[in-house]
Write a structure and sequence with these properties.
Strand content: 25-35%
Structural class: alpha+beta
Number of strands: 5
Strand order of the largest sheet: 1-2-5-4-3
Number of helices: 1
Distance between the termini: 42 Å
Number of domains: 1
Amino acid sequence: MKIRHDKEYGHFKIILNSKKNAGSQKVADNCVLDFDAEGNVIGIEILNAPRHDIDPAQLDYTDISDPAYKAELLKKVAARKQEAHGQ
């Protein structure tokens, strides 16, 4: 995975793998997805990132397969379910 940031134009791109880009689709005013030949997403580009309060220097990476992270996430989900059911 690679992350690219064009400071001059404010574009931010996440490249998920090294497969060849077979096409792109704009999915929002500031978001373009890149696809491989099989239709899998291989890249995400955010246009005008500073205008949307996206700062790559503030990148916070979390491995969600980490058992401690999963346990905390499950606690939050259980609490939200209880709130939703009025318990």
